[in-house]
Amino acid sequence: MAQNQALRWIQLLLKCTIFLSMTGAAVSSRLFSVIRFESIIHEFDPWFNFRATKYLVNHGFYKFLNWFDDRTWYPLGRVTGGTLYPGLMTTSAAVWHGLRKIGLPVDIRNVCVLFAPAFSGVTAWATYHLTCEIKDSGAGLLAAGFIAIAPGYISRSVAGSYDNEAIAITLLMVTFMFWIKAMKTGSIMHSTFAAVFYFYMVSAWGGYVFITNLIPLHIFLLILMGRYSTRLYSAYTTWYAIGTLASMQIPFVGFLPIRSNDHMAALGVFGLMQVVALGNFVKSQVSWQKFKTVMVLSLAFLLAVGICGLFALTYFGYIAPWTGRFYSLWDTNYAKIHIPIIASVSEHQPTAWPAFFFDTQFLIWLFPAGVFLLFLELKDEHVFVIAYSVLCSYFAGVMVRLMLTLTPIICVCAAVTISKLFDVYADFSFPQDNAASGAISRKTRLMTLITKLTVCASFLGYLYLFVYHCTWVTSNAYSSPSVVLPSRNQDGSPALIDDFREAYYWLRMNTAEDAKVASWWDYGYQIGGMADRTTLVDNNTWNNTHIAIVGKAMSSPQDKAYEILKEHDVDYVLVIFGGLIGFSGDDINKFLWMVRISEGIWPDEIKEREYFTPSGEYRMDAMASQTMKDSLMYKLSYYRFPSVYNGVEGMDRVRGQRIRQQDIGELDYFEEVFTSENWLVRLYKLKELDPIGRDLRSAGEFDRNAARGLKKRIARKPALDFRV
Amino acid sequence: MLAGTRLFTILLVFIHLVMGQTDIKLLPASWENVEYLRNVDVSRKYVQERTNLRIKNIDEKPNDEYYFVLREEVFENVGLFSAKLTKVDAFLESAILPDQTFAANGKTVKVGIVKLPSPIAPGKETDIVIDLVYNCNVEPFPGHVSLGENRELLLSTNKYPFSGYHTESYSLKFSGSSSFSELEKPGSEPSSCFSENDEFNCGSYDSLDSFGSLTPIHIMFEHNLPLPRVSTLKRDVWVSHWASTAQFEEYYELVNDAAPLKSGFSRAEYMKDQYALKQNGYLQALEMALPPRSEDHYFTDLVGAVSTFKFLQGHLFLKPRYPIFGGWKYNFTIGWTNELSDFLRFDKTKDDTYLLSLPVLNGPDDTFYDEVNLSIYLPEGAEVLDVWCPLPITSTAVTTENSFFDLNNGHTKVTVDLKNLIDTVSDSEIFVSYKFSKISLYRKPLSIATSIFFALMAYFFLKQTTFMIEH
Questions:
Q1: Up-side HSE of residue A372: CA atoms within 13 Å toward CB?
Q2: Which residues of A touch B329 (CB under 8 A)?
Q3: Where does the chain cross the membrane (chain B) (predicted)?
Q4: Which of A320, A343, A374 marks a domain boundary?
């Protein structure tokens, strides 16, 4: 007894140590960017989340929910409080307040930066419990260790990547964990917890629809397999009722759960559940023959009514049809044709095959093995894992960003495989009492031992490689804030290219507080967050037309662009130009999307074809088409660029082309006000209207002629002759 | 005598309350300026005016107070007002009456009082020097410049002495720039100035009345240096007895008062002509003179850390994100840590009493500060006994503020507001004496430990409770 007690204590101690070190590994491997750069918010969307969090902390929860942001989407504004998922911001605000309460007034920025690493520890814990339910605690610990350092998850949860996914994956795993517990036991408490965490998930990420569909699918599969039980009934109905009602409390979701097609599966399965329950009850009361007739008839009737109802309701507009993002899940070309704005985002592109290996290393080939092993056993909870695996494998192949949702289940399945392997091969105890079955020869014993050692050693080697790979990938691929770029000085010492912040800070310090800045939508959130200025469009691409307006201005000649921008009260135009140092993610490389998106709205005025050379090339040098040379983007990007070289030609290092001064021409409608140190960000001001009513081109021409003419007039004095 | 002065001051205040503005004639005209030499130095961001005075008592009784009149706009921006005896080179007691406004010759004026060490007998003379530093009346001229152009400034001041006393002989000189010229504007007299050595001499005049002519003089001079002005400086010093450190953090709101650019900033031109290597009216780097032996320096601004700074030989060199041209602003924060023993002394005469002396400024050279807010965070439980600073303090407050692990009252915070400082006062110190007992020192870790203990116990007991229905 005492020995047992001691063993339990040791086990507990070990488990605690393992979890602590796992959390330590998870957090520390996500801190590369903080150590290498600084505690800074990364990329684009996190800047908005950060700004929203600051608003929440400064103004309180109710003001936050009612937040109308007049500093974006000028002049429309954005009903920010009603169009965001508040889970992330409220959680970090709660953490911030909580820390203040216990005497730790941590800066809100640091809370936001370290939010994702902290939650990755919780994810590991939830994955452990989930896998415990699937197999045992050994597999659980492995799965937790995998998810803690798998690059597929780290890619969205490094320090500073303060995005919805940072918390959503944690909530996803917690919800699934409670769901598995609930459906195994039929416990109302657990399914309520699952519903509560589902609600939390709805409040945090649009990807909650995945849960909304996966759990019903699980139930549906179980019913089809004839595994209906009262446990399932109580678990599902509790989860659905509470979860749906709760999710409708989020302003951005509202009545979607009963009005959108994305949510209809859950409702349908809920109905089916009742029918099946009724059927089960009837079955227990009447004979099999009669029941069969009743079942067939009622099923046919229900199906017909259900499908007709769905069509009718969708047709009359009571139920929203599928969203574009949903269609693009099934047809990868859909977005390219119908919604260029979705296709223009690189993370919406189909995944490249190496990415799977890059993000999960050896887990990717253990994953199918794990699914197979689960098939062999096929308990109720295994069906869930299989459904999850199959669905997500498809989704991850379609969109890069959905790699994120696949990673947890890869970790779980791989952990199941390895733990199964270790169950067999790491068991070095030999049956003692096998005298009856004849003594196993020494040779067999030795061979078994060698086999076991080989397998164990090779898998330990794989595990070592895995850790090495994960650290390498995290450090090299996923730890760049993308606001700051690493570089080297001429003497080889490390330096930072900090042009974005330089220009944003200049905007913030030296322009009027209500100045409006027009830029491509990618930089909207950063301008709002760092420069604190009003933008026309931002990364919340809710209004395609508005984005097209900016795209049209950028693709039009400067006089037309000036008109468009003046109509929208724009004061400054910001372009990203990488030609001087060879930064390939600049606006000229995104320019075709601007053209395409505006062509979608004004097909008569903007034509993509005209921006290519006659031979169909996308060029910027002397061969570029006249439309391209006239476009505002071309002019703003290259203005004064050749004068850094010899004044005639400049070398664009991104495209490797020579840019001629004569193609750039004069800039009459805009005035350069700031260019950052490496020319990454260029800022222009819209010139004031001419005081004597000329259009700006003729005013500029007049000035140039005046400057030129001063010389000429001296030379061209008419020779006066006396006429005799 | 002192009582008499006080009575007089009270009377003045009374009259001030009744009439709003007091006529300057109420001040006794007991002196005569035998010699009034005014030398205006424009080499720095602010104007340094040195007045060499030979004064003669023309009253019947001995007098020891000399009144120096300042125009109100000068008073609003005055950085320094001090007086010296020429012969012995000793500072005299001097101050500007901040609350009293007088009217003279249709102008609102303030009065500075210089107290001589001993009363001067009637008919006797003495020599004093009055130094006045102020940051006004200078503006870029003409308004805008192009990138590499020479920067000219325009100083407008009164041509004749604006004194409460009759002036026998007067001369006005300008110095501190390579080229001066006088600008004639409507209302100004014909130019009478000429260059002499490195100075610009604007003539000497005899027998001028008190509060005489207000004729302005406009002097244009070349000044190819930035004009940095810190509109707000928030300087925090965290004193920690446990870590034995003094941590400094300064938040600057900096603006360059030099002439703005004619058109927008062209990086191409800036790169091509290598303006980064030249000195002109734009600010490319700041040099902060930190206290010796400082460590852990950092440089951030509102969007994060700035990587371009270097610490060399006690000086922190900052390169702002962008060159600060005329009219441009730049807000930033710097911080560093020093050993506490460099600033703290234990008062042996009294129990648990410490004396802290901290530098008032550590900013860049040639800078004017509009407002300085200096906060000193003493450890939790410290009791402030006295605060003293040689510079005129606008307001002093002792409050508390909660910081990391402040589970009781929070750090004791001493806040001092100062106005119109110049960089040269950086060697002045502020003194704070406070009481901090051993009990307070040990109370902090104890209260942290207690809180953690209670939290763990609460967790333990919550774990013990069961909510199961069946057993």
A1: 8
A2: 509-510
A3: 445-462
A4: A320
- The span from the CA of A693 to the CA of A54, in Å, is 45
C-alpha triplet B15, B17, B22: angle, nearest 5°: 45
**Which residue of A lies nearest to B321 if distances are taken between CA atoms?**
A502
A501 Cα to chain B: minimum distance (Å): 7
Which H or E run includes A659? strand A657-660
Q: Work out the minimum CA distance from A502 to partner chain B, whole angstroms.
A: 5
Which of A320, A341, A369 is the C-terminal boundary of a domain?
A320
Kindly indicate the confidence band of residue B1, based on its pLDDT and cuts at 50, 70 and 90.
Answer: very low
Beta-sheet pairing, B295-301 with B329-339 = antiparallel
How far apart are alpha carbons B233 and B370 in whole angstroms?
8
DSSP 8-class letter at A536: S
- Tell me which chain A residue has its CA closest to the CA of residue B409: A103
The phi and psi torsions of A647 (rounded to 5 degrees) equal 90, -10
Write the CA distances from A482 to A402, A520, B104, B256, integer angstroms.
Answer: 21, 17, 64, 31
- All structural domains of chain B, each given as residue ranges with its CATH number in brackets, are 2-222 (2.60.40.1730), 228-445 (2.60.40.1730)
Strands A534-535 and A516-518, bridge-based pairing: parallel
Single out the residue of A142, A153, A152 nearest to residue A463, CA to CA: A142
B328 vs A contacts (CB less than 8 Å): 506, 509-510
Q: Structurally, how many domains does chain A consist of?
A: 2
Rounded to a whole number, what is the distance in angstroms from the first to the last CA of chain B? 95
pLDDT mean across residues, chain A? 88
Q: Which of residues 491-550 of A touch B (CB under 8 A)?
A: 495-496, 498, 501-502, 504-506, 508-510, 530
Among A34, A510, A680, which would you mutate to test the B interface (most chain B Cβ atoms within 10 Å of its Cβ)?
A510
Residue A583 domain boundaries? 497-708
- ω into residue B142 within 30 of 0, thus cis? yes
Q: Do A644 and B272 touch (CB under 8 A)?
A: yes
Query: Which contiguous run of DSSP H or E holds residue A572?
Result: strand A572-576
A145/A660 Cα distance (integer angstroms): 57
Angle between helix axes A363-377 and A353-360 (nearest 10 degrees) is: 90
CA-atom Rg of chain B in angstroms: 28
Nearest to B157 by CA among B228, B72, B214: B214
Three-state DSSP class for A602? Answer: coil
CA A719 to CA A538: how far, in whole Å? 63
Q: What is the ipTM of this complex?
A: 0.90
| Residues in a beta bridge with B382 | none
List the structure tokens of A219.
Answer: 């139930």
Q: Which residues pair with A495 in a beta bridge?
A: A487
pLDDT band at B17 (very low <50, low <70, confident <90, very high): very low
Chain B interface, Cβ < 8 Å to A = 263-269, 271-272, 301-307, 321-322, 327-331, 402-407, 448, 451
Does A143 map to a domain? Answer: no
Asked if the structure places residue A415 within a domain, the reply is no
pLDDT digits (tens, 9 = 90+) for A540-549: 888 889 999 9
- Helix (H) / strand (E) element for B18: namely helix B2-19
Query: If residue B384 lies in a helix (H) or strand (E), which one and from where to where?
Result: strand B383-388
Residue A412 lies in a domain: no
CA gap A656, A638 in Å, rounded: 14
Output the six-digit token pair for B101: 């406004």
pLDDT, tens digit, 9 for 90 and up, residues A110-156: 999 999 999 999 999 999 999 999 998 889 999 999 999 999 999 98
For B240-287, what is each residue's pLDDT tens digit?
A: 999 999 999 999 999 999 999 988 898 988 988 888 888 888 899 999
Q: Where are the alpha helices (DSSP H) in A186-287?
A: 188-204, 208-224, 230-247, 256-259, 264-285
